[in-house]
Amino acid sequence: MRSDVRTALPTAREALAAGAALTAGALAAFVLTNPRSRSWAVYASDRELDRWLSSQPTGVVVGVVLAVIAVAGLQRSGSRRTAWVLSALCVIVLAAAHWTVPDVGDIDTLIALHFGKTAAAGVLLGSSVAGSWGARIPQVAVVLGVSATYVLAGVQPPARGDSEYLEPASLSTSAIGEPSWILLGAAFALTLAAAVVASKQFRVQRLDHPTLLVALGGALTLAVANRLLGAWIEDQEFGSQFRVWTVVVVSLAVVLALTVTVARMLPGLDGRFVLATTAVAAGAITVINDLRAPSVSVHPWLALVVGVVAVACGMGLPARSERLRIRQSVLGITVVAVVPLVSVVAPEFGSNGALLVVRLAVLGIGVGLAVGGSIPGAVSVAALALALPFGSLVFAAATTIPLSRVVSLEDLGSAGSNLPHRLAGAAMFATVLACGAALARHRSAVRATSEVPRHEDSGDNPPPETP
User: Fold this and answer.
1) Which helix (H) or strand (E) holds 10?
2) With 0-12 CB in 10 A as exposed, 13-18 as middle and 19+ as buried, what is 64?
3) In angstroms, how far apart are the furthest CA atoms of the chain?
4) How many CB atoms lie within 10 A of CB 36?
5) Which parts of 292-352 fold into alpha helices (H)?
6) Phi/psi at 457 (nearest 5 deg)?
7) What angle do CA 236, 240, 246 make, to 5 degrees?
8) How far apart are CA 44 and CA 68, in angstroms?
9) How many CA atoms lie within 13 A of 369 on its CB side?
10) So what's the pLDDT on residue 200?
11) CB burial class (10 A; 0-12, 13-18, 19+) of residue 450?
């Protein structure tokens, strides 16, 4: 009995790796979260602001691609110690950027600093996934850190409020500000400790060239498509209501088609994770936008606690077979779909206060179920899927541009002020359902892949050899 308890408890090495994975994943996710906002992080001329705003999404998609490239390099190296050392170096780069920002005197330097930060965050995400993947507790920790931060990164007060737009803003490379020194310090200390105690026998998952090529090609294709289509939607801000929604529907259809294609090309059941994180990105965006509203009255710490606990509870549901994992993922996506559905039925319901906290809790449980039931075996697929929500610029543009665009009196008279909110909710609801339907089709492949071992092992023993 005592031996069973000991084997169920994490070792010191696993505990340090889990802490490093949690904090490094959260830090990378925070830096890659850079929403479109009217709360400018800089004070400059119109021409400089145009260049600044254009650089923001471009830097994020660069980070998304670098996450998969970092995993590929670490798979070739094979050393988990190298992965954690690289993570610590990335944290140092992010800390240096944080320290440098107050002394930046021009927009070009700030743009360069932004690209440096997003590149470091992408590598940090990839290295933390590579260092933790294969050990159950650390890999769950990195998924928890990234998923929870994606939803909660914007709950802190923005760098600039709408009521202060005529005054110079505090300088920052992001619309949500710089990461806290506490998070930077914790991530550095834990990644360094994980590097010190890393075992030479416990190697990074072996390089699988076909899977890596699909993951890298998927990251590049989806990142570029989201960047171009997101910009296309933003260009419709002054267009007619019919035109903007036509562009939104076409953009969503293209992104969905590309996502499903990439998921189908991945081996076994690993494509589920790509579909699950895409569904999460679409379903969570309405709550995320409400949490980032300048007028929100929910205390940031309350939102953080509720969101993290909800995601952790959803991920904690045990599922011992592939069939049960698929059912768990489908259940999670169904719960996530409730969030945009509420926006269709009652656009103003739960936009602030206690009901917003309830919506956040429901979303968090759905996110935990969806990602927890679809964790893949291939580390490159994990890096791709965890990075995709931050590059989902089409979802962000589809739920902000139609709501903030200049609306004519004719539009208001014919459609009503709540129609854009209902249409945005319907678009995200349909996207979540499409991802859920594609994921559910994997049920037919469960029997064929049930004999294939998953890439999981303990933190002390090397992973099983594969031919």
Assistant:
1) none
2) buried
3) 74
4) 18
5) 300-315, 322-345
6) -160, 175
7) 70
8) 34
9) 20
10) 80
11) exposed
Contact (CB, 8 A) for 295 and 347: no
- Alpha-carbon distances, residue 260 vs 180, 275, 404, 437, 445 (angstroms): 36, 7, 30, 10, 16
Tell which wins on pLDDT, 399 or 129. 129
Calpha distance 423→360 (Å, rounded): 21
Residue with tokens 């169904």: 334
**Chain Cα centroid distance, residue 206:** 25
If you write DSSP's letter for every residue of 138-187 in order, what string do you get? HHHHHHHHHHHHHHHGGGSPPSS-GGGTTSPPPP-SSTT-PPPHHHHHHH
DSSP 8-state class, residue 266: S
**How far out from the chain centre does Cα 438 lie?**
20
Residue 49 · residue 227 · CB < 8 Å: no
Question: For helices 136-152 and 271-291, what crossing angle results, to 10°?
Answer: 30
Nearest to 436 by CA among 327, 256, 279: 279
Q: Which two tokens stand for residue 167?
A: 């005054």
Q: Which residues of 257-280 are buried (b: 16+ CB within 10 A; e: fewer)?
A: ebbbebbebbbbbbbbbbbbbbbb
**CB distance 245 to 415 below 8 Å:** no
For the purposes of burial, counting CB atoms within 10 Å of the CB of 381, is it exposed (0-12), middle (13-18) or buried (19 or more)? buried
Banded pLDDT at 464 (limits 50, 70, 90) = very low
CA separation, residue 135 to residues 80, 129, 158, 202, 205 (Å): 11, 11, 36, 9, 11
317 or 421, which is more confident = 421
* Burial class for 292, CB neighbours closer than 10 Å (0-12, 13-18, 19+): buried
Domains detected in the chain? 11-449 (1.20.1250)
The predicted-structure confidence for 165-178, as pLDDT tens digits, reads as follows: 433 345 677 777 78
- Are residues 275 and 259 in contact, defined by beta-carbon separation less than 8 angstroms? yes
User: What are the angstrom distances between the C-alpha of 206 and each of 131, 211, 388, 464?
Assistant: 12, 11, 23, 11
Residue pair 336/366 in contact by the 8 Å Cβ criterion: yes
Q: Which residue has the higher pLDDT, 370 or 44?
A: 370
Residues β-bridged to residue 135: 457
Q: Write the DSSP string, 364-393.
A: HHHHHHHHHT---S-HHHHHHHHHGGGG-H
Residues 6+ away with beta carbon under 8 Å from 207: 72, 75, 76
On the 0-12 / 13-18 / 19+ scale of CB atoms within 10 A, 338 is middle
Please tell me the distance from the alpha carbon of residue 191 to that of residue 201, in angstroms, as a whole number. Answer: 18
